[in-house]
Amino acid sequence: MLSNTEQEFIIHFGEMGSKWGINRTVGQIYALLFLSEAPLNAEQIVERLSISRSNVSMSLKELQAWELVRMNHVQGDRRDYFTTPEDLWTIVRTLVEQRKKREIDPTLTKLRELQMQAPADGENGYAMERIGELGELIELLTGWYDDMNRLETERLVQLLTLGSKLQGLIGKAEGVIPFSFGGKRRTAQTSKTSDGGAA
Amino acid sequence: MLSNTEQEFIIHFGEMGSKWGINRTVGQIYALLFLSEAPLNAEQIVERLSISRSNVSMSLKELQAWELVRMNHVQGDRRDYFTTPEDLWTIVRTLVEQRKKREIDPTLTKLRELQMQAPADGENGYAMERIGELGELIELLTGWYDDMNRLETERLVQLLTLGSKLQGLIGKAEGVIPFSFGGKRRTAQTSKTSDGGAA
DNA sequence: TATAAATTTCAGAAATTACTGAAATCCGCG
DNA sequence: CGCGGATTTCAGTAATTTCTGAAATTTATA
Prior knowledge:
2 copies of one chain form a homodimer. Chain A is mainly alpha-helical. Helix content of chain A is about 60%, strand content about 5%. Chain A is built from 8 helices and 3 strands; from the N terminus they run ααβααββαααα. Chain A has a 3-stranded antiparallel β-sheet with strand order 1-3-2. In chain A, strand 2 and strand 3 form a beta hairpin. Chain A starts with a helix and ends in a 29-residue tail after the last helix. The interface between A and B is large, with 99 and 99 residues. The first copy, chain A, binds a DNA duplex through helix 4.
């Protein structure tokens, strides 16, 4: 049924999925749909990947929750069919957006929360400093991401293609550096016999 | 020993780690070191996180393999001490570099390999098309990443801060769009009764 | 080289996560 | 309404991953 190429691709994405915290089956189903021109129904996925019907059902739900797969219907067929978006840029945008939503945003929230509830009067200065720095870094990066995300794909590709050539253009805008990352120094405290300290 | 803030931060990063395919303990150790001004030795980590010595040993090895943690030595002390880099940008660069090396590069290699071994004479045209597209997309993105990575941090921050303001400058460079992502159309084949097809 | 501290290895236990089959639910249509 | 196919749920099992303690190894120095 599946060509050798498809097999290998699917297996690769199954393995890759693991490294991404996505389970193997989910990765494989995604890969299968990605390579498939026509939408597939659950039964077809069962056949092609040799996994149980219930596993397919649950995995598809997961993929839909990530908005990586969408459901279609075919006239005169009660079954649900599934596809991935045809446009790869749509896929990239969704992936980044979802990971941001699930991983970055909650972390930023947590960091700000920790800063709020901190006694403020210097209890554990270094840790608070680091938490603050990390929060600012994340905000810089997500701010930039939001900007990029607003661009239409064509513009985005232009920017990406320019790459470092952009560096030349930089001088023309104000050279404002708002944050001071990299300027913090750590006092390399030697901490001898620190094991028995206040334990 | 650990302040409440540190506790929460560490627990958060343990949980986050899971979503990243990194195990909880590894995430927690990293978080602990990140917040710690002074380098810590294995025994101190054992105490603060209440995990076994062997677990600490293995997790530190993993973190070192990722180059996210480095080993220091203190005069007159035989034990190994560990720290995270003080500069957050160094951390970001390492993270991205490592994930690229472990996840993106092997995938690109696999895609190219599949393209090579494909019968070329149109066996399974659509899948091959998609594999090609995906390869090109990844190359565009990693090419851009390489460019950015070459920039010194100060320049990089400038670029990130400018964000979409850059869009205005774009017109000044040649508006060459080398790839045609998003231009492919899928024949939305209806595939009735496709379940019994060639099975 | 002997010794003692520090670290690593590794086999098995514990915990977590993934997967299945059976039953329940849903849903369009006669 | 009730039939039949499609889908979902879920409890139990399988598989995988994580973690530990004990033993082995490494290493600095006496």
